[in-house]
Design goal:
The complex is a heterodimer. Chain A is built from 25 helices and four strands. Chain A is an all-alpha fold. Chain A has a two-stranded antiparallel sheet. A two-stranded antiparallel ribbon of chain A has the order 3-4. Chain B has two domains: 1-31 and 187-212 and 226-256, no CATH class; 42-168 and 176-183 and 258-416, Alkaline Phosphatase, subunit A, CATH 3.40.720. In chain B, a hairpin with a 5-residue loop joins strand 3 (81-82) and strand 4. Classes of the chains: A mainly alpha, B alpha/beta.
Amino acid sequence: MAITLNEIDAAEAWQPWQPRSNDPWNRKWAAHLYRRAAFGASREDLLEAERLGSQGTLDLLLRGMPQAEELEETLVDIGRIAAERDDSGDQLRGWWLYCMLQGGHPLREKLTLFWHNHFATSLAKVQSPALMFRQNCLLRKHALGRFGPLLQAISRDGAMLLWLDSNSNVRGKPNENYARELMELFSLGVGHYTEKDVREAARAFTGWRSDGASFTFDPRFHDDGSKTVLGQTGPWNGGDVVRIVLEQPAVARFLVRKLYRFLVSETPVPPDSLLEPLCQSFRKSEYDTAALVRTILASRHFYSKHAFRQRVKGPVEYVLGAVQAVYRRYGEEEVHYRPLPPLALANRLSGMGQSLFAPPNVKGWPGGQAWLNTSTLLERDNFAAALAMGTLWASPAIEASAAVGVASLTPAQGLGTAHSVLSIRKSSRPAALADAPEEPAPPRAFDPARIFEEGGGGVGRPAPQASARPTPSAEDIVQALLDLYLPGGIRTELRAKLVAFVDEDKPAGPALARRVREAVHAIVTMAEYHLA
Amino acid sequence: MFNRRQFLTHTLKGSSLVALSAMVPQFVSRTAQAAAPGKDNILVVLEMSGGNDGINTVIPYADDLYHKARPTLRQTKDIVIRLDDHVGLHSGMQGLRPLWQQGQLAVVQGVGYPNPQRSHFEAMDIWQSADTKGRTTTGWLGRAAAESDNHLGGVPILHIGLSRLPLALTGAPGGGAVTVNSANSFRLELGGGKAGQQKARRRLLEDLAMPAGSGTPRRTQAGPEDLLSFVQRRQVQTLTAVEQLRELLEGPNAVPRQGSGLGQKLQLIAGLIAKGFGTRIFYVNLDGFDTHSNQAYMHNNLLAELADAVGGFFQTLKTTGHDRRVRLMTFSEFGRRVYENGSRGTDHGAASCLFIAGPSIKGGVVGKHPSLSDLDADDLKFHTDFRSIYATQLDGWLGCDSKAVLGAKWDHVKALEPKT
């Protein structure tokens, strides 16, 4: 019987992992690290990681690419413009996805996403992409910083003040919304405060307002009487409440547990004893997030079966991971570089249940198994098809005409926006399978079959030169695809199914390229692929 | 010949989906056949997410304390839809008037449970699991579907929405509850090319989703299901559901789907019922009831959307002749504080009201409005435990043993027993 979490020696578990001859640093672990610390990896990322080793790769991820800092300023400028010129938030969503893919600091973006989910604020109520953008910048600034300053800053954030009604929390008639969520969801968790604490804390936050953009304090609305919050009595204001909250031992336990779920495993629930060493060092470091993240991502426990494929990828992780395996970022292959149309991705993400800047409620996306129901999984399956076959990247007009064969389009349905293209898929065609024209081959930069035409060939193995191109065997093709999409392997009988599929009728040339795309579609729907 | 339950069990055991696909259309058409009398009652559950302000939904307009507690939010007796000498519906709910007048709307007051939770998420879990201790990981409707032997159709519960599968629906038998997003396609994209190749691609997807050891008749019980088999089973369920639902949701004779509003979701359900779709439990939600500030406008819109949607739903059902076997029940995780706050809104409260609609129900106001002066931490006290209402629906309407579903015997709410 395998060792359960209860039997693990907690002190051992968080020691740095050392590669051994029977468990070396390899592509499997590099991809594992990239799935957790970033949004998946490109082939180049994996090759570089194998070269750098586990420590070197983690250092790189924590530091970001050399150009990341410089890039951030530019990205922020672009984001400000994106936020200003749209009401729906789609520009902003596209912009953030661009930052995740091309910002040079995916771990920082990953933690920004963690904090977005933690301090879940939605455009649906805030109604201002500009305020959501500013909150996003705040989360990015503190993403790998200390939790105390972050909690103080978010309590004064313009979007948050609107989201949880601080703006109208007034003396004599306090509005409890922020005070309650501060304790329940942002710092302590249910069971570590009382209803009385909520009511008293709400009084302390009276007079904290937003002038529409930034934080202001209006003493006319502030209740300066004495309050008792979590056992401490005084004429507290909001900042005092945040300070008192931060002194509670529950804070470290709450955050460590949540980060464990985000970085290590969603099931089973870890015992307190396993997390205790992390909680202690997190407190000692004054809630230094970067240090905690480093300890976790460098640990023996992280490089074990207790973590490997023990999370369900969220939609952003799923989509960007698949895109990175197929797509080339700028600079990696400039000849074939094509700018990524992030709006198409944002639409797909919404169908999968993760519309950025619009979490379902203040608790954020529940995550884990809740990501997958028959509707969201079908969206993932269909995304996989569109990505692999290249239709995802077609401009609306091209996508629509490509869809004609698939979905008998009526002209009245309109092609104006990516959204209307999605609704075109609601076809009036009989649902049974029928012959249809093949999609045109996608542009090279978006073509998963491209790897078999390149000098580098399959992943890390020599492939035939383009000039003398003997057709690679179905075995080789499947192996190369699995090395890229699912390092760490799959059951042999599933592998055999893929090989048989690729080998059927022995396709060659364009037919083979198409078959490869079809195989990629199938791989990206596999249960193993949905796990991080 | 399989019956439906065996069919599902079979599917789950992982026998090849390929063999299955051939059977499915025939299987769906069988669901169109009339079920045994009394065995085909349908329950639609409508979640009002965010904590609906019950006091401004079923309004104690005759109580001075109400007007004192709600200086800006109050509705007077001339504005409300009067139900009796004491309470009336919020004026936004005109859409429910016909149901009320026909005696098909039960308005249940003072619903709650001991030691109420004021966290949205804890409270929602309590209502959905029907466990106030928070130990149960399955939902009351999922367990009800498992208990009721006469659920027809391959889909035990249908959830229409964009959100995650609600806790209430987990634990359903077979592949589990199916979610359909009312606005998007429910079609598996297999691209262009020859039909044979599309078929090969679908088959590959099915093969790759098969859990390990699915060739063997019985999987060894190895404790809780691991994550990989969960995803594999969900994928099998998805591919199966696409097959099961494709005649109803795609193709020339499909039930039209227009959008994601509550009215459109309920019309989709009405359309599926009219097509003879055998599912007996449906679930939808309407979000936005967490009205901490400037409540009046938002709350009015939500209540109007709800009332119009429910009114229109039963109108359609009446036209198609299915209204008598359909009942709709609302709930929300909690009510709101008696006294409004300083933001013309209300904070989290406790006991509240709910609605049960349909020709099968005895219309009327059920239970007294809780006192506005005898409060528990500024909140209304409950007098009717929500599990009594669940038990009444389970035994009396869905025909499944409430004790097995709820883990204890709860007294029925007499006024909510089906008309005899």
